[in-house]
Amino acid sequence: QVQLVESGGGLVQPGGSLRLSCATSGFTFVNYGMSWYRQAPGKERELVAGISSAGSSTNYADSVKGRFTISRDNAKNTLYLQMNSLKPEDTAVYFCNARRVEFRSVSEYWGQGTQVTVSS
Questions:
Q1: What angle do CA 101, 99, 21 make, to 5 degrees?
Q2: Under a CB-based contact definition with an 8 Å cutoff, are residues 6 and 22 in contact?
Q3: What mean pLDDT is predicted for residues 66-76?
Q4: CA distances (Å), 38 to each of 74, 92, 105, 114, in order?
Q5: Are the C-beta atoms of residues 79 and 52 closer than 8 Å to each other?
Q6: Rg (CA), the chain
Q7: How are beta strands 3-7 and 58-60 bridged, if at all?
Q8: d(Cα 28, Cα 7) in Å, to the nearest integer?
Q9: Which string of DSSP letters, residue by residue, matches the chain?
Q10: What is the pLDDT of residues 27-43, one digit of tens each?
């Protein structure tokens, strides 16, 4: 059974920090590219950051560059997102995503999300 369980969300003041975690099981974590997405009320889900299977390559949305850092621990099957200098516009539900493309087959899994609220 595939599981992606996000944690670490909560309420934080502007300028504060949070570290999200995504603990995974039920699939071969090291074979999957991993990403964080977020969805704010009334908006579409958007990509925040991604990391390659080996962790050697990362990419970020322009809105979070320089503030957020994605990382992974393949020994612990866990994905992280360090979020610094948080802004009210970062308020959203954050989702963990696992994706693997092999030949013409795509395998993709989602977590249930964790709420991040940035407010004074």
A1: 160
A2: yes
A3: 98
A4: 23, 6, 25, 9
A5: no
A6: 14
A7: unpaired
A8: 20
A9: --EEEEE--EEE-TT--EEEEEEEESS-GGGSEEEEEEE-TTS--EEEEEE-TTS--EEE-TTTTTTEEEEEETTTTEEEEEE-S--GGG-EEEEEEEEEEETTEEEEEE---EEEEE--
A10: 999 999 999 999 999 99
Neighbours of 6 (CB within 10 A): 22
Asked if residue 59 lies in contact with residue 33, where contact means CB atoms within 8 angstroms, the answer is no
β-sheet with 18-25: strand ranges across = 3-7, 18-25, 78-83, 68-73
Query: What six digits make up the tokens of 86?
Result: 């948080």
Amino acid in position 50:
G
Please give the single-letter amino acid code of residue 11. Answer: L
Q: Two tokens at 61?
A: 């949305």
Q: Judging by DSSP bridges, how do beta strands 3-7 and 68-73 pair with one another? A: unpaired
Stretch 74-92: mean pLDDT, rounded?
98
* C-alpha to C-alpha distances, 111 to 46, 86, 88, nearest whole angstrom: 15, 22, 23
